[in-house]
Amino acid sequence: MPHLKSQAISVQTHLRDQVADALRAALIAGDLRPGVVYSAPTLAAELGVSATPVREAMLDLAREGLVEAVRNKGFRVTEMTERDLDEFTEIRTLIEVPTVGRVAATASAEQLEALRPLARQIVTAAGEHDVLKYLEADHRFHLELLSLAGNQHLVEVVAGLRKRSRLFGLGTLNETGRLVASAEEHVELLDLMAAGRSDEAEECMRRHLAHVRTLWADDGANTEGRGVRPAVQRVKPAG
Hints:
2 domains, single chain, three-stranded antiparallel beta sheet, elongated, Four Helix Bundle (Hemerythrin (Met), subunit A), mainly alpha
């Protein structure tokens, strides 16, 4: 029956998304550790779901470069080296800094002001220690800002880099409140661009990316010896 089949697929897809969100949250918190292999049945037991949506969600995370499949064992959380982070930051700086300057000189006031609610959401989420909402708003802000340059391939390249690195270190930064300072730089950037101050906007973006990289490094030093906690929180059934 087509209707019942479609409904089943919808429910399964929703559960898969819930599981993926729970796994991302565990990655952010550092409960899923780089280099460690986790089996789908073990994670499923902690989440309170079957192994199938866990495997499907892990495949989604693998496509984002956050985990990798290990034959007959499960999935290994991708290890992010200092060199990886340096290279990601370098590429983003080469792309995003001049693009911000170009957008500041060419975008309309209406286009830039349309991004202000996202900039405020980033600050609010950081202040409320809601890392998942922070990530969502931050991701949308940066990519929508870059899209104003009119080059979709450029946006896709940056999106790929962000997926590989955006979870690193956010857990501790959120706990210590240091994420707020990074969040506020989005508002500063938008203010400079709206004022047509292209050179200063470029410098702000360069400083923002360097700031994020420094926070990553500091967090890497602070996570040594962190205690073991349950890997993931159980998924709540859909209301």
